[in-house]
Write a structure and sequence with these properties.
about 180 residues; Immunoglobulin-like; 2 domains
């Protein structure tokens, strides 16, 4: 972060306070005016599923997020919201939501995750009771009852929240899931 950015953000804070908060080696997160920010927010999400046919059961949607080693804050939570797709009613096994360090088929340690789902907004809210430290890749697994009933491109907007008081959201982009009709003769 440049000094000019610090001056703009600080507005009312002393420069010494901002520099101490931003540059202290033991600082966990950037905190300004009671809000917590990433120093270097994650900027990408990858979505993968090995089951991509309509109505297919046992599907799992893997959302992988990599935290920069200089993130300055651990990952405290995520929101994942379906923003596109013809079928906006297919249900999920919310209680089976899970998370692990690493990527699909290269799974590391399991990570505790608490999940809730607002079916009207099509939004998952995920919280990590043990926040994910900078430099790690975490994958969240969402499990629908079955894939959507209609072939389409489904998009999920993902937002990250740093661990700390009053976390400031960091949009990561969209995970794209293509669901196809079966290719039966």
């Amino acid at each position: 972060m440049s000094l000019s950015s610090l001056f703009r953000i600080a507005s009312g804070w002393s420069l010494a306070t901002c520099l101490t908060t931003t540059l202290a080696p033991d600082a966990v997160a950037l905190e300004l005016r009671g809000a917590t920010y990433f120093n270097k927010a994650p900027w990408n999400v990858e979505l993968l599923s090995y089951y991509t046919t309509v109505w297919q059961t046992r599907a799992e949607y893997y959302f992988s997020i990599s935290l920069d080693p200089e993130a300055g804050a651990s990952l405290g939570g995520l929101t994942i919201q379906q923003t596109r797709g013809v079928d906006n009613r297919f249900p999920f096994f919310v209680e089976r939501t899970s998370a692990f360090l690493g990527r699909p088929r290269r799974e590391g340690d399991r990570v505790p995750v608490e999940a809730s789902f607002n079916s009207d907004a099509r939004r998952f809210t995920l919280r990590f009771p043990e926040p994910i430290p900078p430099g790690q890749t975490v994958t969240v697994v969402l499990k629908p009852w079955n894939n959507p009933a209609f072939a389409d491109v489904y998009m999920f907007q993902v937002t990250a929240f740093p661990a700390g008081p009053n976390p400031s959201p960091a949009p990561l982009g969209f995970g794209t899931l293509r669901i196809y009709e079966p290719n039966w003769p």
